[in-house]
Amino acid sequence: MAKRGFSGVVMRGYGARDHEVTVVGRESLAPHFVRLRLSSPTLFQDAIAVPTAWLRFWFPDPDGGESEHQRAYTISSADETIGEFTIDMVLHEPAGPASLWAKRAEPGWTIMATSLGSSKFDVPDEPPAGYLLIGDSASIPAINSILGVVPADVPIEVYLEQHDAADRLIPLTPHPRARTHWVPRQGPASLAAAIEARDWSDWYTWAGPESGSLKHLRTRLRDEFGFPKSELYAQAYWYYGRTFGKRRGTPEPEPEPAIAPEPAIAPEPAAAPEPAPAAPSGRAVRGAWRAQGAGRLLAPLRRTLILSGALQAVVTLVQLAPFVLLVELARQMLAGAARSTLWTLGGWALGLVGAGTLLGGALTLWLHAVDARFARDLRQRLLGKLARMPLGWFTIRGSGHVKQVVRDDTLALHYLVTHAVPDAVAAVVAPVAVLAYLFVVDWRIALALFLPVLVYVMTTAVMVVQSGARTSLASRWSERMNREAGAYLEGQPVIRVFGGAAASAFRARLDEYIGFLGDWQRPFTGKKTLMDLATRPATFLLLIAFLGTWLISSGAMDPVSLLPFLLLGTTFGARLLGIGYGLSGLRTGMLAARRIQTTLDESELQVHAGPARVAADAPGTVVFDRVGFAYRPGVPVIDGVSIVLRPGTLTALVGPSGSGKSTLAALLARFHDVGTGAIRVGGRDVRDLTADELYAQVGFVFQQTQLVHATVHDNIALAVPGAARERVEAAARAAHLHERILRLPHGYDTVLGPDAALSGGERQRLTIARAILADPTVLVLDEATAFADPESEYSVQQALNQLTAGRTVLVIAHRLHTITGADQIVVLDGGHVAEAGTHDELHAAGGRYRRLWDAGASRATAPEEATL
Amino acid sequence: MIRTLLQLLPAERRRMAAGHAALTVLGVALRAAGAVLLVPLVADLFGPDPGGAWPWLGLLAAVTAAGWAVDTTAARIGFDLGFALLDHGQHGIADRLTRVRLTWFTAEHTATARQAIATTGPDLVGLVIYLVTPVAGAVLLPVAVGLALLPICLPLGLAALAGVPVLLGAFWATRRIGRAAERTAEDANTALTERIVEFARTQPALRAARRAEPARGLVGAALAAQHGATVRLVLLQIPGQLLFGLASQAALVLLAGTTTALAVRGDLGVPEAIALIVVIARYLEAFAALGELTPGIETATTALRRIRAVRTAPTVSGERSKRPATAAGAPRIRLERVAFRYSDDGPRVLDGLDLTLDAGTTTAIVGPSGSGKSTVLALLAGLHEPTAGRVLVDGTDTAALGQDERGDLVSVVFQQPYLFDGSIRDNVLAGDPGAAEDRLGHAVALARVGEVTARLPDGERTAVGEAGTALSGGERQRVSIARALLKPAPILLVDEATSALDTENEAAVVQALADDTVARTRVIVAHRLGSIRHADRVVFLEDGRVVEDGTVDGLLAAGGRFADFWRQRQEATGWRVVTRQPAGDDS
After folding, report:
1. SS3 for A829?
2. Which of B106, B124, B153 is the last residue of a domain?
3. What pLDDT is attached to residue A258?
């Protein structure tokens, strides 16, 4: 076995396994940057190739010595099934062990690699505002893997420290919104200074530069820009001033490989090939992060929570008091105290028990009352917020998200306020108080109590390291099984008709999952048992009894001093380990608080306060005036669209899915506000109108129907609350729904719900009746509405005919034949107007519309998923 | 719960479970012995000759070490049992699910079943070792300590034993009250937030109707009114949650008081009394441990409850027997006074339906939504069993057939064409895994799957993704048709997709069914005129009854409900959006 020094021993202690890796190919990506294709049949039993994941390699000693040198390299690509992967290495001159090896490595060479500890990069469901990636040639492989997974619409700023002119030749993974800045190194502070001073609110930073640069970076990012800890991943990838071999790609400082005494070579900073960019001008703004939202939400409760924590601390101490009294009791008994003294002690004990219980109960009651008030205010704030947010917020998020925030997160907050804080305080105070007490009584035995705890902590550490990526893989598995189980259940009818073959894929997956759980957990059974045995009271008892007997029999301790240990010391381990559990409740609550605050921070639709922007449009005219819109800055969905809708005409929006037709229509209904340009209704900018003013003129019927929990009458008369029954009935007749309503248990007075449910087509007709009664002059319509349900298509279409008659209509068209009668057809492509005209004109013009039409003759475009 | 647990274990492991239980008891006994050994040990330490404690310490060390050894063995068996539970339990559920009646799968049950498969795995592994063993230990240890105290100090031993049911009762009550309080808080929260969720859900409608602000006021007022009531409800639950804490503290004081009193009366030596107080603390420790296990107990009970829900769900009748399919040629199918409802208290979807489908014919079932078309199809497919009446295939009651035999009779094109994660070829082959290459090619050609695979880089070896999501709806439909055609079943059932397929796909579906040469009796729930056109016979269903029955032309000539339907469908296909002239209204 080659010498691997201390870190080798540590890694073996952690149970690291060596895998033999064979070079199968090499490719030069830049003069000093080589990509090695490697293969190992067994490596991926341990390793998981996720973005930024790395492996440790043991390189031979360049001087032919016994020792091996550990360096870590990012997996730049991998095919786990066949065990092939690539790593990218920087070649240095003069070369250290890794560079030297890489320089000469040829197919057929082998090397040992270990997967132990690694990192992974995940894009969360709701990505940050942007990614700030910082590094240099050593971390480019990791940065490349990040660039490969960040969604195309998320902006990325890449800052790379340049040490060598050739660094710029290293290929970077392309990303449509990434901007790269090369910063020639002038010292440890130059990289940090080069980061643009701007508002980095809600950005996430991933930094893998040289250690010295990192120190300065950290300071600047945290102190100047205000990056919270949770939004900043920082890891030194190498150390300046050590050997070149060491310098590249050792992504973590902790297990130091034994390096043969090579001269430390401090490379001269590469001569700056261009004038060094001064720190970009602009003022640094301390940003605000969603991640910090929880603190703001809970700010009004701060004092209450602190006070409750303090009270809980008292309660916890009172609950421990009887044990102290028992020690006192023993002391008095040994001293042969009078009976009355003992009775007094008993009285005290009973009194304290009563007081502790009362105080604890009162605290809980008080917190519940506080929480109830807070929750009520919070719900009122949420209500207010929901009423003023852009409608698009709801359609983008979906009802699941709203439920999560409004129902689940408020409940989580209830536990945070009423239980989590006291639990956490109790979990911390109890062991600390016990420990302090025991140390005061006898520090020797108290110190010994840490022995089993140490065993526990070290075993846990080994397990955490050995689990490595499996921990996160486990949650990925569980998500995946949840999806697959859902599909398996959904597919039950198919499985029953087609039998085993149809179910075999799921069975195979289930076996894999069970296999994964087994492979992961089985090796730990022994360790888990050890942890349990080490921390159980019986073990502590033996430890205490042994030390006690020894100290007492040698006369080094008063026997009474042993009592506190026998009474409180045996559960010390359990108490100490309970801290983590007690604190976990806080985390869940804080996440919920953060989500609620994020919702409360969402921007609201503003009613423009300044002078009304009036244009001389004819009444009833709708004008899209150079309208632009983007969901994310820099990714326009609508760009410079100008359309005029004349009163009483039909305008159809046509285009492939993703062309922006649904978004454009939604803008008129003010689901979002335009980014540039304006939409005017009757000459007034829609942003100058209050919601009520706007919707008195503009109505919409989309695929999603929305019924409120009320009677049929009230549902139809939603916009005209006092409407007489005759008018409601007239609207229902026009919508071909009157007969159906009469068949409901209580006719128009039937409350809609699970017992009196309407079919999809009927719900559509009800919303159409509602729109007929509301009588807007402008109507936005999704044509797919007419084809929702084949059995009621005809009725819905007849109802739509009644609704559209005489109005200014903007229709999102999915089937071209339904809009051949339109007064104007606007063909959208990539957010621009490609063509506009009547059907005959566009058909004759032979442009994009013609192509869509010809394609549709054989294959009508399927209605796109409702993105509204 | 224990029974559910034992049922989940494979039979050969149940003996191991018994061994594990025995070792657990032994481990507890050793721990109790260790606790009681403290009496002479501590008494010596407090006595005149502390050195006399050494032998006792040696004994304590021996007992503790023996305990470690026993518990290590028990843990090894416990983990083994856990892994067996995982393997056997999970497969058991997956198997069981294929036999559970489809009507059982309500939204709630489906969610339960999904969780039973997807999330209970890790819980099952740790069930024995983290739950059964510690809970058993926590309950048995105080009893064992009490018993061990009897010879040393009878009154104290009796008091300790008497305390066990009291403390366990307090623990149980606290847990119950705590759970009830949690549920109350949750219900209260749901009540208070449901209206906000609804308010958010209906925002577009409310705003379009200019009602967002008034509705907000209404919801706000309703919430304020509800708030007081729910808060009172929650507050009432709190005192009960303190019961266990109070009981264990009181027990400490009382037992220690008893000991002191005995010492004061001279029945006990002072060192012995002190030693006994230490033993009492250890006795109470076990109950505290029980409290710490509560979250684990909750998780495990939930997991077991989910598994039990699946295990006790009603299953389809008939054995799993596998007899070779007997049906040869297209059969005659008869529904005899068939009634059906989805749940015991639900309305009858079908009530006394009589229908005969002649051998080799193609019947189109047509009717408004909710008329029971798909139910009839599901009954024919054997996916549901009639609540009353019989389904006869060539005179044989399908209820008398095994599940697999019934499955062999039918092939189905489902409305939602579920594909499993595999290649297109594998999915088609699911229809008949042993099919020869030419038959496979024929089915693929009929369903025009070739047009789909030609566009894909890997052709028919292309993976369809989870639940077929890598393919478009139309493409999935074609694969599912090929699968159905490949299956050599004498009955072919088609539930036509309601969502608008593109015209090309629509034609493909119609043509594939028309060109299928296998002798079958076919039934199609049809929405499109093209599909209905090919049927020998049309059955018009309304409210679960046959209202019209005849050939397409015959019914069209009769001018009844079907003729109306036909005309409306024709008009609907030519519909256009207009703003000028209101279209002719016929109602």
Report:
1. strand
2. B153
3. 30
Owner of token pair 């967002």: B212
In the numeric block, which tokens belong to residue A705? Answer: 């129907």
**Who contacts B391 (Cβ-Cβ below 8 Å, separation ≥6)?**
B333, B334, B335, B336, B338, B379, B380, B382, B397, B398, B399
Strands A203-207 and A18-30: unpaired
Q: Which of A157, A116, A126 is closest to A16 using CA atoms?
A: A116
Residue B359 placed within a domain: yes
Q: Measure the CA dihedral A310/A313/A319/A324, to 10°.
A: -120
A271 closest CA partner among A196, A140, A159, A167: A167
Q: List alpha helices for B209-269, DSSP H.
A: 212-236, 243-264
Q: What is the pTM of this model?
A: 0.78
The mean pLDDT of B478-485, rounded to a whole number, is 91
| Cβ–Cβ below 8 Å for B249 and A695 | no
B502: nearest CB among A541, A823, A859: A859
Of A728 and B503, the structure prediction assigns the larger pLDDT to A728
Higher pLDDT, B495 or A65: B495
Is the confidence at residue A17, as pLDDT, over 60? yes
Side chain identity, residue B405: E
Average of per-residue pLDDT across A776-782:
92
Tell me whether residue B363 is in a domain.
Answer: yes
Q: Measured between CA atoms, how close is A90 to chain B, in angstroms?
A: 36
CB contact under 8 A, B53 and A552: yes
Question: A–B: how many Cβ contacts below 8 A?
Answer: 456
Are A484 and B466 inside 8 Å of each other by CB? yes
Tell whether B583 is covered by a domain: no
Mean pLDDT of chain A: 84
Q: What is the model's pLDDT at position A310?
A: 94
Instruction: Name the pLDDT band for A260 (thresholds 50, 70, 90).
Output: very low
Phi–psi pair at B416, nearest 5 degrees? -100, 100
Is B41 in contact with A549 (Cβ distance < 8 A)? yes
CA atoms within 13 A on the CB side of B96: 20
Instruction: Choose the closest CB to A402 out of B200, B370, B498.
Output: B200
Task: Give domain status of residue B464, yes or no.
Answer: yes
Task: Write the ipTM.
Answer: 0.86
Number of independent structural domains in chain B: 2
* pLDDT digits 0-9 by tens, B230-241: 777 777 777 777
Least Cα separation, residue A413 to chain B (angstroms): 11
CATH code assigned at B475: 3.40.50.300
CB contact under 8 A, A386 and B256: no
Contact flag B474-A862 (C-beta cutoff 8 Å): yes
Query: Hey, what are A264's tokens?
Result: 């430390």
In sign, the C-alpha dihedral spanning A837, A840, A841, A843 is positive
HEC secondary structure over B514-538: HHCCCCCEEEEECCCHHHHHCCCEE
DSSP strands (E only) in A340-484: none
B245 — pLDDT class (breaks 50, 70, 90): confident
Q: Contacts of residue A696 in chain B, CB cutoff 8 Å?
A: 210
Chain A positions in Cβ-Cβ contact with residue B144 (cut-off 8 Å) = none
Domains observed in chain A: 6-114 (2.40.30.10), 130-242 (3.40.50.80), 622-860 (3.40.50.300)
Picking from B153, B180, B201, the residue at the C-terminal end of a domain is B153
Minimal Cα distance from A377: which residue of B?
B224
Contacts of B8 (CB under 8 A, 6+ apart): B85, B88, B89, B92, B124, B307
Q: Do residue A322 and residue B253 have CB atoms under 8 angstroms apart?
A: yes
Nearest Cα neighbor of A473 from A144, A47, A81, A43 is A47
Q: List the domain range (segments joined by +) for residue B128.
A: 1-153
Q: How far apart are CA B575 and CA B273, in angstroms?
A: 96
What confidence score (pLDDT) does residue A731 get? 94
Work out the widest C-alpha separation in chain B, in whole angstroms: 117
